[in-house]
Amino acid sequence: MDLKEIIxxxxxxxxxxxxxxxxxxxxxxxxxxELIAAREEVRRLEEENRDLxxxxxxxxxxRRQFETRLAELRTRVEQASLERDAARQELARYxxxxxxxxxxxxxxxxxPDYLEFLCDKRKLDFSTAETGxxxxxxxxxxxxxxxxLFRLDIRPGVETPLPGGDAGNAPSGTDDIASLLAxxxxxxx
Length: 189
Prior knowledge:
Structural class: mainly alpha
Number of strands: 0
Low-confidence stretches: none
Order of helices and strands: HHHHHHH
Largest sheet: none
Shape: elongated
Distance between the termini: 119 Å
Mean pLDDT: 80
């Protein structure tokens, strides 16, 4: 096996075979000297590359710098575009959720998450005026099919008039209790 070939593979991040790994593990002092010589050769080649780059005409160096900078800027623009698109989607989702929440409150719907699912399923777009009619139709259908999903308007007290006339002629609380006690059956002794 050639040590220089193994070093080249390791320097270019190519995977080493098990035989090559074993060979490196069994390296003797003589082979380590070859390794040091190979490192020196790599340094010498890097210096030659720098010298060649320095020997390039000014225009060529500027062109390479420009291309490198242009590639960096393109990468940054692409990343910024992706972030912008993600922000737009998040904002649209937030606006959609706010519209669904307002619809749920206006109609007394008790589960806004479920309503959001239904609106999303029907692909309601709250940014258009025609969606208002579609949303109202959806709420009407839901109220007819699933009334348990809506709050009830319940107020304490009696809404119907008392028997025997209007509220002004209603018996007072003590008269009513006295008449009930008088009509109660007697307890056996």
